TrEMBL record:
A Pfam family matched in the record: M_Eco57I_C
Coiled coil (UniProt feature): none
GO biological-process terms attached to the record: methylation
Name of protein: SAM-dependent DNA methyltransferase
Length: 192
């Protein structure tokens, strides 16, 4: 049965995972009150949770090997990560940089090179991040049209966008030497 928790687990001696010490119904109540509890705990079987908890105690974290930080948070990927066609339509060439939007674009590749990227571009996949940090308001009619499109979709009202000085300026994250996606289908893939 998925989503049930084991009680009184001997391997959680320092009581880090408070959910592991309660019955399933109490766990669900606690989860609804505590934003630090991961929802994955609801979808894993008791066996899977037990295995992962024991394994986590025996392995080093990714932080032992590399610096980990979140990537770009756009709040509207379909608006800020676009295809070559969209760039041309709105004259955004001065304001874009290459980006890999989804892990599925890697397929089974470990190394992703310029040729692979060009294949994405040529297949009209969203492959460019719109960076308007250097944009001067009203300096381009086409860019203004694109911003109006975003406002018509009420993107400026989204939580992350509201917190920015200009809703359309996404905070930049410096690129790393490698990366992996949190949504990775069957198994995580580390890319360089």
């Amino acid at each position: 049965r998925k989503g049930l928790f084991l009680n009184d687990l001997e391997f959680d001696k320092n009581k880090k995972n408070k959910l592991l010490h309660h019955a399933a119904d109490k766990c669900r109540r606690l989860i609804s009150q505590d934003e630090n509890i991961k929802w994955s705990s609801l979808t894993l079987s008791d066996y899977e949770l037990n295995f992962l908890t024991r394994l986590a105690g025996k392995l080093k974290s990714i932080g032992s090997y590399a610096t980990s930080r979140p990537g770009i948070v756009t709040a509207a990927n379909s608006f800020f990560i676009v295809s070559k066609r969209k760039i041309e339509e709105y004259s955004l060439q001065k304001y874009v940089s290459p980006i890999i939007q989804k892990s599925q674009f890697f397929q089974n590749n470990i190394v992703f090179n310029e040729s692979d990227f060009n294949e994405l571009v040529n297949s009209n996949k969203p492959s460019y991040f719109i960076d308007l940090s250097g944009y001067i308001k009203n300096s381009s009619e086409r860019v203004e049209d694109y911003l109006k499109l975003g406002e018509s979709l009420e993107l400026h009202k989204r939580y992350k966008c509201q917190r920015r000085k200009n809703w359309y300026v996404v905070p930049k994250v410096p690129p790393g030497e490698g990366f992996f996606f949190k949504r990775c289908n069957e198994y995580p893939k580390l890319h360089k």
